[in-house]
Amino acid sequence: MKINLTFSNLRESYFQAVSNSSWANEGYLVTLRIEEDPLLIDEIRRLNNAFGIGLIKLNSNNVFESEILFPAKERADIDWDTANRLAKENKDFSGFLEDIAEDTKLGKIKSDYDKILNPEEIEIFIKTKEI
Questions:
Q1: Rounded (10°) angle between helices 38-51 and 10-20
Q2: What local confidence, expressed as pLDDT, does residue 19 receive?
Q3: Domain map of the chain by residue range?
Q4: Which of 25, 56, 64, 115 is packed most tightly, with the most Cβ within 10 A?
Q5: Cβ-Cβ contacts under 8 Å for 89 (sequence gap 6 or more)
Q6: Mean pLDDT for each 10-residue chunk of the chain (131 residues)?
Q7: pTM (2 d.p.)
Q8: How far is CA 100 from CA 6, 20, 26, 48, in A?
Q9: Strand 54-57 to 28-34 pairing
């Protein structure tokens, strides 16, 4: 997530999102503000077509009014090498993968996952975290 997205920080921000989401099914770069520059939008479009990372403009006052400016492209395959490395380095992520594997085998959701927040809870979370 970036506070400001400009032409001068686009490449660094975008390729950080590419790197951080290499293991994921979809990847997004999220920003609070985006510079209104047609060249910037054209470059984001080109990068989106080439690498599939989407762009979300986050509305911190009302997350439900956030916009997907460029949708991410879904990957057919997960980068399991990276997912396995993350699981070795992060006990929580490893447990998450184990829960998914178990639920998939059972064919139903038995595990505890993060609670889905309602709009009021999201607003409190954003204010508490000073987002």
A1: 20
A2: 86
A3: 1-78, 88-131
A4: 56
A5: none
A6: 94 92 87 95 96 93 91 86 88 89 88 84 83 68
A7: 0.71
A8: 38, 21, 17, 29
A9: parallel
Q: In what order do the strands lie in the sheet with 2-5?
A: 2-5, 28-34, 54-57, 67-70
Cα gap 56→64, rounded to integer Å? 12
The angle, 0 to 180 degrees and rounded to 10, between the axes of the packed helices 80-89 and 91-106 is: 120
Amino acid 46: pLDDT: 97
Any idea what DSSP says for residue 22? T
Q: Report the C-alpha gap between 129 and 12 in whole angstroms.
A: 25
> Residues, the chain, total?
131
Q: Which two tokens stand for residue 128?
A: 């508490």
For residue 41, the model assigns a pLDDT of 96
